[in-house]
Each structure stands twice: as C-alpha cells, then as structure tokens.
From TrEMBL:
EC number: 1.1.1.290
GO MF annotation terms: 4-phosphoerythronate dehydrogenase activity
Ranges for domain NAD(P)-binding: 9-199
Signal sequence annotation: none
Keyword Thylakoid: no
Classification of source organism: Archaea, Methanobacteriati, Methanobacteriota, Stenosarchaea group, Halobacteria
Residue span of region Disordered: 230-249
Top EC class of this enzyme: oxidoreductase
Keyword Repeat appears in the UniProt entry: no
Swiss-Prot/TrEMBL keywords: Oxidoreductase
Pfam families: NAD_binding_10
The protein's name in its UniProt record: SDR family oxidoreductase
Length: 292
C-alpha cells in the first residue's frame, strides 16, 4: 500500500515509520526543506509541497490512500481555515481527479471539537460543540473529509504526548489546575491511523483516538511526582486560575472545558494499544527525569 502523508510531522513521521516497517510505501509531504529532511532521516521518501498548492501536489505520485495531518503551526483561525479546510479541499480535488485516484482518506482532527461537557463522557455519537474559532474550523474540515469523493475517515486525536512532548515540568514545577486529561501517546496515534488503513476499517466514520484512562490533572500530577521522587505539586481550582487577569481568552476556554473521551469504539474495532494508559506512556520520561 502506497500512502501519501500530507503534513507529515510529529504523528505523520511515526506513521511513516510504522508503515515502512510493515512493508508499505509511505511518502511524506511537507512544505519546508527542514521538514523533508526530518522525513528522510526517518528512512522514507519525502516530497516538498504545500497542501494548498494543487500544482505542487500534482507531483506526488498516485497512491492508495492519503492521510491529511497538516498543521496550521499555531497560527490564528484564518490560517487554520486556509490549511484545514481549503488545503483539505485542494488535496481532495487533486487526488480524486486523477485517472487512478486513492481509495481512502484519513483526516486527523481533535477531540477539541466537543467543547465543554462538564466532565461527562463523550464518544462518537456525542454532539460536537466547538467553542473556539479553531475548533469550529476543525469541525468544518471533518465534514469536508466525510463528504469527500474519496472515502473518508475522521480520527479525533486526544492530547498528544511522547518523545519531545512529555512536558513533565508543567505538572511538577508549577501549580496544577483541576480538570481532566484525555491523552494518547504519539506511537498509538500513528498506530490507530495505520491500523484503520491496513484493516480497511471505519470507512465513512469518525473514531476517537484516546487511551483507556482519562485522568484528573491533580491525580496525574501527584502520580508523576511520586514516580519522580518529588513532593506533590501545588494545586489550584479553576476559579483560582481564572482570577488571573493576564490569561488569554483561549486559555480561559481551555480551563473551562472538561470532558472524558471514550475509546470504546476503537477497542471494538480491535486496536491494541502500545501504551494503554499514561502509566505505560510516561515510563521512559520518568526514568529520564533529572532527579532520578
């Protein structure tokens, strides 16, 4: 199976590694030469192209599947729309219009589209209530993917962590605000996409990619501190944190957003996690923490 990974970054490079190891032919597409070098360092083919540039994408060879994993690079809603919605449309039109179009499209989205559910459980059937411009754009892009002439699957990632993104200091070295964490290790995020492609599952569906155990931030921070041999970090309520006048509006919305994401559908599909919970996923980071 030949797979074009558009926006081949943090998850995409790991996906390419996994596909390559299993005998497939990944092609990583990035808009920068530095990004292409990172793909080549991972051992598979890289091509330089912007997802919003149809002519550049035309140079990507025919493939069996496309994975749209592009990022807006932390820019605002207008830039996000240009990448997630218009870029996705451009990519679909470019590949679907070929004499030998791909058979599958996977669009990587975010559980952020659910908005706030007061700590309740959410799954694929839960109505989405995006609360920011960016999450509204993501939700719009999901509809583009599911309406595509190339059969689409939407994978909603929970909070990504893993190599270079453990951020232990966030929970060990400063006050921790109450709330829930929904997480998935980078290797499993890539593994979910790889599994759905290989097994030809979830056509036309949305699937949550999240590990087995949403965890309270206070409990997670205390567990990390214990594992690292440190005292429990200070805690603060949402009200205490929101009293900070310097908080940006997006930060305030993140603090107020609370939900627990279920992976029951993903488990029903048969995916087996490499890191079922944060305990397994953070093991290497804990071992490497400076106090150990």
């Amino acid at each position: 199976m030949r797979v074009a990974i558009l926006g081949c970054g943090y998850v995409g490079i790991e996906l390419g590694r996994q596909l390559l190891a299993r005998g497939h032919e990944p092609i990583g597409v990035r808009r920068s030469s530095e990004g292409c070098e990172a793909i080549e360092d991972a051992g598979f083919e890289a091509m330089r192209a912007d997802v919003t540039d149809s002519e550049a994408l035309s140079r990507v060879p025919d493939v069996d599947a496309i994975v749209f994993a592009a990022s807006s690079g932390g820019r605002g809603a207008e830039a996000a729309r240009g990448i997630y919605v218009e870029g996705l449309r451009t990519a679909i039109e470019q590949f679907a219009g070929r004499a030998d179009p791909p058979d599958r499209l996977v669009y990587t989205s975010s559980t952020g589209v659910y908005g706030d559910h007061g700590g309740d459980w959410v799954d694929e059937a839960t109505p989405t209530e995006p609360t920011t411009e960016k999450t509204r754009v993501l939700r719009e892009a999901e509809e583009v993917a599911l309406d595509s002439p190339v059969t689409g699957t939407v994978v909603r990632f929970a909070g990504l962590y893993g190599p270079d993104r453990y951020r232990l200091e966030r929970y060990l070295e400063r006050p921790v605000t109450e709330g829930y964490l929904n997480m998935i290790h980078r290797d499993d995020a890539a593994g979910v996409v790889r599994y759905l492609l290989e097994e030809d599952l979830a056509r036309g569906e949305t699937v949550l990619a999240v590990d087995d155990e949403p965890v309270g931030k206070w409990g997670f921070a205390d567990w990390l501190a214990e594992q690292c041999g440190l005292p429990e970090p200070p805690k603060e309520t949402k009200e205490e944190r929101l009293a900070d006048d310097d908080l940006s509006e997006p930060a305030r919305r993140r603090i107020l957003t609370s939900k627990r994401c279920s992976n029951e559908r993903l488990r029903e599909l048969g995916y087996e996690f490499s890191y079922p919970t944060f305990r397994e996923g953070y093991r290497e980071a804990v071992k490497a923490y400076p106090s150990r």
